[in-house]
């Protein structure tokens, strides 16, 4: 009997203070392991391809693509975070209290930076569609790089302040050995929801409502312009912008669908108590979103499919390939 009870503990040598494992059928654990492992590999691989593509080919060095690069970097780290969820299949945390706090810190930073990047993408599309004449002068590569850097720095600083107590005293809120729990104060949790979710999502929705109205009018004007007398360059430019708008719109809509449950669960909890079991489902949605983004690029961006081919065949190792035309 004692042997059976010890087998159910995360740390059998600590009979009176160890957490208990999540006892589930072996087949269920195997399915969870295979599913998470598959999502992790696909997410890391595809987003790494996005990072290499935009970083290597100079023709892809555009403001919009740099924003997609920032999003791919955060999605890449999400793929790595799934490895921690794989280790938690049985509900036990074996990496220590400090690593638990750092795990949640990284998760918070990635989520916050992803939301910030989505806001920047919305602003980029807003200017491109609503003020196209001034877009090249307003949205430059250096300005976009500066905004991306500022977004990541603000995310890191804000989340470090949010989880300061957990970082200074890791494991203080654990009830048993093998548990991974962080607690965010009520007012800190409200601040996180407001600044990391409510305000950014409101900005995204307002901008895209405005962009949608302008895009519809431009599409109608474009159809009326198509003809022998229409300037071909102007028509192609508008088509390109509308196509880019469609792609990033899908990315943002999918992002909102996958992220909203995460913050709804966080906000609904009385004291913003987060543990690895209570947010399992919403975290999986967030993980799936990071896997879907590069798949959306592959469906709608021919340059991504072409760059993948060059990367997989190792043609990018040849000299001068960074100057290749893939758009």
UniProtKB/TrEMBL annotation:
SMART domains: 7TM_GPCR_Srsx. The keyword Ligase does not apply. It is found in: Cell membrane. It is a multi-pass membrane protein. Keywords: Cell membrane, G-protein coupled receptor, Membrane, Receptor, Transducer, Transmembrane, Transmembrane helix. GO terms for molecular function: trace-amine receptor activity. This is Trace amine-associated receptor 13c-like. It comes from Parambassis ranga.
């Amino acid at each position: 009997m004692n042997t059976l009870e010890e087998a159910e503990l995360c740390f059998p040598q600590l009979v009176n203070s160890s957490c208990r494992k999540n006892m589930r059928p072996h087949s269920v654990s195997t399915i969870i392991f295979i599913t998470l492992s598959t999502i992790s590999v696909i997410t890391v691989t595809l987003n790494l391809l996005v990072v290499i593509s935009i970083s290597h080919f100079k023709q892809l060095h555009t403001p919009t693509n740099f924003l997609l690069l920032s999003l791919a970097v955060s999605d890449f780290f999400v793929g790595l975070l799934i490895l921690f969820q794989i280790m938690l299949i049985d509900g036990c945390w074996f990496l220590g209290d400090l690593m638990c706090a750092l795990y949640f810190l990284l998760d918070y930073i990635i989520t916050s930076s992803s939301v910030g990047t989505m806001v920047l993408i919305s602003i980029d599309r807003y200017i491109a569609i609503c003020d196209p004449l001034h877009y090249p002068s307003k949205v430059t590569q250096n300005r976009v790089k500066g905004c991306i850097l500022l977004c990541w720095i603000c995310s890191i600083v804000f989340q470090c302040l949010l989880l300061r107590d957990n970082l200074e005293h890791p494991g203080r809120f654990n009830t048993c050995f093998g548990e991974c729990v962080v607690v965010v104060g009520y007012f800190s949790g409200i601040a996180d929801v407001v600044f990391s979710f409510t305000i950014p999502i409101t900005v995204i929705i307002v901008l895209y409502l405005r962009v949608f109205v302008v895009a519809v009018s431009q599409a109608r004007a474009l159809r009326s312009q198509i003809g022998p007398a229409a300037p071909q360059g102007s028509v192609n430019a508008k088509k390109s912008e509308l196509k880019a708008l469609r792609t990033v719109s899908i990315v943002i809509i999918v992002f909102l669908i996958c992220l909203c449950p995460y913050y709804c669960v966080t906000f609904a909890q009385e004291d913003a108590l987060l543990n690895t079991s209570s947010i399992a489902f919403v975290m999986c949605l967030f993980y799936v979103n990071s896997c879907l983004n590069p798949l959306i690029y592959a469906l709608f961006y021919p340059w991504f499919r072409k760059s993948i081919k060059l990367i997989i065949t190792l043609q990018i190792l040849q000299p001068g390939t960074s100057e290749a035309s893939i758009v």
